[in-house]
Design goal:
Blueprint lengths: L6 E4 L3 E6 L18 H9 L4 E2 L8 E7 L2 H12 L4 E9 L5 E5 L19 E12 L9 E10 L6 H8 L13 H11 L6 E9 L6 E5 L4 H9 L18 H5 L2 H5 L6
Parallel strand pairs: 4-9
Antiparallel strand pairs: 1-2, 2-4, 3-4, 5-8, 5-9, 6-7, 7-8, 9-10
Length: 267
């Protein structure tokens, strides 16, 4: 079986790959040394040493960047820290969300093991509803089950930000076993055989730290996510997913050139 990863973009400084759902970006002290991790998989596939610059939750899928040098890793990490990278996601959530909205809700840095006295930090997420569906199945007090497909742009990078923010507005992501609704997760497993978190990183956009040129990397949803969209009757929305990058968002245009270029490397 072919276990090679899909390479979405590569140059001498950066590689972008499509992370499958269920794989960690890198191992930690609790993992089996032989367990799969994306960092090691990409190193083996490219035959080169590389460095992580941002994260993507283990149960999520989509575009993830690595750097081929410490210098480039520092530059890219600083850009993510300064919010000079535009990230776009797709998610399926419980209920009908508003056609568009913004979630401005501070979050503690460590979602899994918050320390006493930890101060929440600003966290901001924008979203736009793309489609809705209603299943004729009663669950709890409701005679039917309603769901929304949303495009999401997190403008900060807190741990589990998208998942925690949609939980905060009572529209948890489907397949989220930490912040989600177990009843709906079980329904999707039994009806559709869906055993994953329905969250996918579908695009990143930034200015290349070395050249200063715009770099946009799209990543259409992987098969397990796309299959769910078909089963929900959202196949007509597939054309809305970026096979190539559209025009910049208003948010990204508002970032100053100085902020985007503040983390450059020598040419």
């Amino acid at each position: 079986m072919d276990t090679s990863l899909q390479v979405l973009y590569q140059d001498n400084d950066i590689i972008a790959v499509h992370k499958p759902a269920g794989i960690k970006v890198h191992r930690d002290g609790y993992d089996n040394p032989r367990s799969q991790a994306l960092l090691q998989m990409v190193r083996i596939q490219t035959g080169r040493w590389l460095y992580p610059v941002h994260r993507l939750d283990r149960p999520a899928s989509g575009v993830l960047l690595f750097a081929f040098s410490q210098e480039m890793a520092r530059a890219l990490s600083e850009m993510f820290k300064r919010q000079a990278v535009e990230k776009s996601y797709l998610a399926v959530v419980r209920g009908y969300v508003d056609p568009a909205g913004e979630i401005d809700h501070p979050l503690t840095p460590n979602a899994c093991d918050p320390k006493q006295g930890q101060i929440p930090k600003p966290a901001f997420t924008a979203y736009r509803r793309l489609a809705v569906a209603e299943l004729p199945i009663g669950l709890g007090p409701h005679p039917t089950c309603r769901y929304s497909l949303v495009a999401v742009e997190p403008h900060t990078g807190r741990m589990h930000q998208i998942r925690r923010h949609f939980h905060h507005i009572s529209h948890p992501l489907i397949g989220d076993t930490v912040y989600g609704d177990g009843r709906h997760n079980r329904l999707f497993r039994s009806l559709f055989g869906c055993h994953r978190l329905l969250l996918a990183a579908v695009q990143v956009r930034l200015l290349h730290p070395r050249t200063g040129e715009s770099l946009c990397v799209p990543a259409p949803p992987e098969k397990s996510f796309a299959d769910m969209l078909h089963q929900m009757g959202w196949q007509d929305r597939m054309s809305a997913f970026p096979s190539q990058c559209p025009a910049k968002s208003t948010y990204f245009q508002s970032l100053s050139a100085d902020a985007q270029r503040s983390s450059t490397v020598s040419k």
